[in-house]
Design a protein that fits this description.
Length: 245
């Protein structure tokens, strides 16, 4: 989002779906890597040197007074589970809802997970639209935001029912022997979605995220005001407040 806005692309973030950054560092339990400082001198895998995984890693290191020079950073592509299982790296940057589970199930090993959200608050996944749609068709934006909000509320309230509806109506080709695994992935995801203010984004997280992008060299022309990136006016409680005024 910030990179796009810095290139004058009129995209706008209107609903925060993930309230915790979904990236972390996974390592075999035997490595005893349990906190960021333990990564010093270790071989750490990252898919590529950009994107959420790399930004998250840099943010984690920075928040703990570390840098890339303190670790042995390896670019491994999107092979984190295999790379950890085969000992190619001692730790890897992963999406925490599913990849640690894959390692546990496929490699018969227990793992430690360092969740980046425990150390730094970064902007995460959300619904994005553009300025033209907001201007010309605000009812569409409001409708989609409300639909996602309602679906998220219902899923958090009754994840078993949400999973059953999904596999019966939308992911009908999911093999039954994968049900337990995918139900656990959903369970892991719930903790990333949960918030007392569903959909709302934290302005401080945008400032922190831009700072990381600048520090990594991914952003050379920072925004003077990161609030241009988001618009919370379409959230259900914002609409209700407007109607009551």
């Amino acid at each position: 989002m910030i990179l796009a806005r810095a290139q004058d692309r009129p995209v706008v973030y209107v609903f925060e779906w993930f309230h915790r950054f979904p990236v972390g560092i996974v390592s075999p339990e035997a490595t005893t890597i349990t906190e960021p400082g333990d990564l010093t001198g270790r071989k750490v895998g990252v898919p590529i040197l950009q994107g959420a995984s790399y930004v998250g890693l840099r943010a984690l290191l920075s928040a703990n007074n570390l840098s890339e020079d303190d670790i042995d950073l390896q670019t491994i592509g999107y092979t984190a589970p295999d790379s950890v299982c085969e000992g190619v790296v001692e730790a890897a940057v992963v999406y925490i809802a599913n990849e640690p589970l894959t390692i546990v199930q496929n490699c018969n090993m227990q793992v430690n997970v360092i969740e980046i959200a425990d150390y730094v608050n970064l902007v995460s996944n959300g619904l994005v639209t553009n300025e033209k749609t907001i201007r010309d068709n605000p009812e569409l934006v409001e409708g989609i935001v409300h639909a996602i909000s309602r679906g998220l509320e219902d899923t958090l309230a009754d994840p078993d029912a949400a999973f059953d509806i999904s596999v019966k109506n939308y992911v009908t080709d999911l093999p039954e022997d994968q049900y337990d695994t995918q139900r656990q992935v959903l369970e892991n995801s719930l903790a990333l979605w949960q918030s007392d203010e569903l959909g709302h984004t934290n302005p401080a997280a945008w400032v922190a995220t831009q700072d990381i992008l600048v520090n990594t060299g991914l952003l050379t022309n920072p925004l003077a005001d990161v609030s241009v990136c988001y618009n919370m006016d379409f959230l259900p409680d914002a609409i209700a407040d407007d109607e009551n005024d």
